[in-house]
Amino acid sequence: MKKTIRSTYPIELSVGLLILIFFLSFILASSLFDVPWRELIEGRDTRAGVGMFMISCAVLVMALILWEEFLFPLKVRHQDGGVVFRNHRNKLNTQLLIYCIIPAIFVFVYLNFEVHQIRFFIWAAVCTIIPIGVKLASGLNNYNDFLKLTDKAIEFKNNQKAAAFPVSDIQRIVVVRDEDKVLHKLEVKTKTGSQLIDLDEMELDAFLDVIDKYITEHYKSLLA
């Protein structure tokens, strides 16, 4: 069973923001085609208008990937009497699928329209590289990572690290916070040693408040 802890934006707000992004992108995209606005307004160069429309669509797709609140609600899975936090694969697969639209648009525009080379390649680089650097690369790197918290055990997987700690074996849980007092690491201490769970590397930033609350409520006697 999944529980939504962050809904997507209301449809009215989403549509309004996307229209604003599209409108601004459409205006700025005119610089890629070296066409005077007067010719566009008078309809003497409709090809450039089509190209501007397509570039604006690519920017919209980039916004949908980076600004996840448009399409992707944040959910946690309840399992085995506890909760599982992970970078949801369906979301990542959807992001990868719609991302393919961006390079396809820029290749099509480049092959079929006369463009200002330098400006065009700057726009293409921004729209294709930023989603990879900010969202997709990290998501793929943490595709199988998860943190599972139950009354019986704490389990996690982070790239090459994976472990399960029965609660009965845990002596102490240390919550490591950053300078803003936000949870970003957990140190689990047992009789045989300790293990640092680095939440920063697990694509779990959006869940930090919920994780913090769960630990405080369910492992209160173990907290340092």
- Class per helix and strand makeup: alpha+beta
* Radius of gyration using CA atoms only: 23 Å
- How is the biggest beta sheet arranged? 6 strands, antiparallel
Overall 3D shape: elongated
Q: Which strands sit side by side, in order, in the main sheet?
A: 1-2-3-4-5-6
Q: Indicate the proportion of strand residues.
A: 15-25%
User: How many alpha or pi helices?
Assistant: 7
Please trace the helix and strand order, writing H or E for each element. EHHHEEHHHEEEEEEH
The total tally of domains equals 2
Poorly predicted runs of 5 or more residues? none
What is the end-to-end distance? 31 Å
How helix-rich are the residues, as a percent range? 40-55%
Number of strands: 9
Mean pLDDT level: 87
Give the SSE map.
Layout: E1 2-6, H1 11-28, H2 37-41, H3 46-66, E2 74-79, E3 82-86, H4 89-99, H5 101-112, H6 117-141, E4 146-149, E5 153-158, E6 161-166, E7 170-177, E8 183-190, E9 193-198, H7 208-218
Antiparallel strand pairs: 1-2, 2-3, 3-4, 4-5, 5-6, 7-8, 8-9
How would you characterize the overall build of this protein?
The protein is 46% helix and 24% strand. It is an alpha+beta fold. The protein folds into 2 domains: 2-76 and 88-141, no CATH class; 146-222, PH-domain like, CATH 2.30.29. Strands 1-2-3-4-5-6 form a 6-stranded antiparallel beta sheet, covered by helices on one side. Strand 5 (153-158) and strand 6 (161-166) form a beta hairpin. Helix 3 (46-66) runs antiparallel to helix 5, helix 3 (46-66) runs parallel beside helix 6 and helix 4 (89-99) packs antiparallel against helix 6.
